[in-house]
Fold this sequence. Notes:
This protein is mainly alpha-helical. It contains 20 helices and 2 strands.
Amino acid sequence: MELSDFQPKPIFKFIVAFGVGAFFFxxxxxxxxxxxxxxxxxxxxxxxxxxxxxxxxxxxIIVAGGVLTTLAELDxxxxxxxxxxxxxxxxxxxxxxxxxxxxxLAPVMFFKIGPEWLHxxxxxxxxxxxxxxxxxxxxxxxxxxxxxxxxLGGLEFxxxxxxxxxxxxxxVPGRAALDSLASWVGSYSVGLYVTRNVFExxxxxxxxxxxxxxxxxxxxxxxxGVVASTLDLLSLFPLIFVSYFICVIICAMIMVRLPPISNxxxxxxxxxxPEVGFEGSVVDYFKFALSEAVSKAKEGESFREATTRGFVDxxxxxxxxxxxxxxxxxxxxxxxxxxxxxxxxxxxxxxxxDLLGIPNPEVVAPTTIVGITEMYVPVVLAQGAAPMAKFFVxxxxxxxxxxxxxxxxxxxxxxxxxxxxxxxxxxLFVMRTIVLVPLxxxxxxxxxxxxxx
Length: 453
């Protein structure tokens, strides 16, 4: 084990970067009667204080993404040659079309043009005013702090300490723990940003990315609190979160060993930078983790350079994915709200839910399917159900992870070079649901037997 020289300046850079990141993403604080983290407070404050400005920003960033993608598409087809490099915005024809449709839809949503049913709080109003506003702000702000954290040693420190369990349990490098942590405490948007950056630097291969993005792109702790509050189960929030955490871990351990994930390519898209093999005691791991972190901080950018690059990268990423989220997300929630599609699909599951002893099976069964459109929709549908049914849905909805109002399009768009395809995500949603339904039903009965419901 060769340790780096512990020089004062790199140690100081790492400690400050780690402290700032930990404060922003991990420090629990009380805010409006709820426990959250400064990152959530910052995003909520911006959205609530400057909603019109955020709306203009989202409109402009979607239009910019669509225009730049179109220019990249024309350049790729040699229709004309540009004087500047727009290769970052190159995409498949399908995602180019989705971003262009997003450009057309954005003014409609911003100015509330068209029929009222398009702009209700559960359809277009939710996608535009809640989801896109949140994701649009989360990505550049999160990118600033995550870039500082990663560039100045945080990734090496957490990754080294996590090696003993990440590879055996989930078949990914120890550094993947940071992506997971970023999703848990911040947002799946931030977690996916970390994954993309490490992937482009050679830290992950395609299979690693497939596993991390589909198994660990979780909703944040704060949003699980919103789910519990909506269902009047806030008093059981710790229990709901622990159950959710267990479900995500169990599903990840199973999914990584089954197709389509197990069949993913182990190729890298750049020169590989795999983790160096290492074994030792807990103390040895800590020393090595600190050594790796300090070494990275010594070689890394300054705070100002990392902050600037993170913000610019965040804006570029937002311009790529917001149009796709708007197009696919709006179609998904409209399908859920105005067609009987998911009621019909959920009907065969009613006897199964009933057999598992969950009350209101006619309400719960459709929620197991409709979550593929938007994670929050099942929660709304279950508001009037019995306590056991509410608990079941409160754990199931976030544990399914994959929904096409946001995280699905983001994964397909950000990692089209893996590739992660629509059919893969649908298959994984179905597989997760098959595992989760009996597991959460058993958890629900345990909680009820303890007299907590």
